Amino acid sequence: MEENPSTEFLENFLLNYTGGEIKLLQTYYNEGIALLCINHVEKRNAITGKMLVDLRNCVLELEKWENGKAVILYGEGIAFSSGGDLNFARTENNPTSGFYMSYYAHDTLKRFRKLPFVTVSLVHGPALGGGAELAVYSDYVIVADDVKLGFVHGKMGIVSAWGGTTRLMRIVGERKALEMVLTSKIYSAKECLDLGLAYKIVNSSIKLAETLNFVRALTVHDYSIIQSNKNVTNFVSENSFEKSLDIEREQFYPKWGSKLNKEALDKRIKHVQNKN
Ligand SMILES: CCCC(=O)SCCNC(=O)CCNC(=O)[C@H](O)C(C)(C)COP(=O)(O)OP(=O)(O)OC[C@H]1O[C@@H](n2cnc3c(N)ncnc32)[C@H](O)[C@@H]1OP(=O)(O)O
Questions:
Q1: Following DSSP, what letter does each residue of 218-266 receive, concatenated?
Q2: What radius of gyration do the chain's Cα atoms show?
Q3: I want to staple 211 with a disulfide (CB 3.0 to 4.6 A). Which of 96, 122, 150, 271 is the partner?
Q4: Which reaction equation describes what this protein catalyses (predicted)?
């Protein structure tokens, strides 16, 4: 087994497993919002090797997006994602193939986590195995009222392949995460909310519209402010307190006296709570 396989090698391997696509939609780019769409409807959005390559290409494109603010990851059709492609799982059923698939996905998803944008997973219908793992990579998990989310890996005789347990633990805490992966239980929307996994429940018939509104409310400020805040929270979640203060300072001081800062000071803003 090649311990540090090249991207080219891994992509040649994964591209043997075709079907479906993951694509970036620019419909709301003018608002600084990108849609990342999982589309393999006939297989309930199972993630093929080719789709893992698509996902990486989308993330590489997002890395170049200078004035982006947010990304919404969602699934077409009646599922968020039924997880890893079982055709791949059956054909490449050996540890070396598992290592290659996991190594490649980890690298992509680490990059996704480091994006300086607010990331939101809109999760509906089945989100199982790798589907649940993808769901928890975002900053916010919004679930539709028809969600069925489960870390079912244990039932399949495996553990999380794409780093989902690490992410899950950071969201719901150690004991709840352990319970979820040890039981392979499938959770409803209300249960996801009670666990602290979901941030909000949306109506499945208007789920994208509701999620867009949620995202718009979080992205009212200039993209530079959003990206700096995200750089700080990304760093804090991965690094020590001391290093975090350093990065927070690095993100802060160039904005002290910037055009935006001066304009805000000139407005003599009074920070009273909005009355709705
Ligand atoms: C790599 C990380 C680890 C993993 O993710 S391991 C995979 C874990 N996921 C699973 O085991 C999901 C298995 N699938 C299911 O439980 C059900 O299909 C599911 C998602 C609840 C949907 O149920 P239904 O709506 O009744 O649909 P269905 O069963 O008739 O499926 C429709 C077609 O989709 C296919 N499908 C579903 N999940 C798949 C998968 N993960 N990989 C490949 N194909 C998958 C299914 O075989 C069926 O295909 P076809 O129409 O018979 O050709």
A1: H--S-HHHHHHHHHHHHHHHHS-HHHHHHHHHHHHGGGTTSHHHHHHHH
A2: 20
A3: 122
A4: (2S)-ethylmalonyl-CoA + H(+) = butanoyl-CoA + CO2; (2R)-ethylmalonyl-CoA + H(+) = butanoyl-CoA + CO2; (S)-methylmalonyl-CoA + H(+) = propanoyl-CoA + CO2
Residue to mutate (ligand 1; options 44, 55, 99, 109; most atoms within 8 A of CB): 44
- Would you state the structure tokens that stand for residue 46, as one six-digit string? 């199972």
CA of residue 98 to ligand 1 center, whole Å: 19
Tokens read off for 57: 């290409």
In angstroms, the Cα distances linking 65 to 13, 26, 146, 245 are 29, 11, 33, 26
Among the atoms of ligand 1, which is closest to the Cα of residue 83?
5
pLDDT digits (tens, 9 = 90+) for 194-213: 999 999 999 999 999 999 99
Q: Please report, as a single letter, which amino acid is at residue 218.
A: L
Q: With beta carbons less than 8 A apart as the criterion, state whether 85 and 48 touch.
A: yes
pTM > 0.80? yes
Ligand 1 pocket at CB < 6 A: 43-44, 46, 79, 82-87, 89, 126, 128-130, 152-153, 156, 161
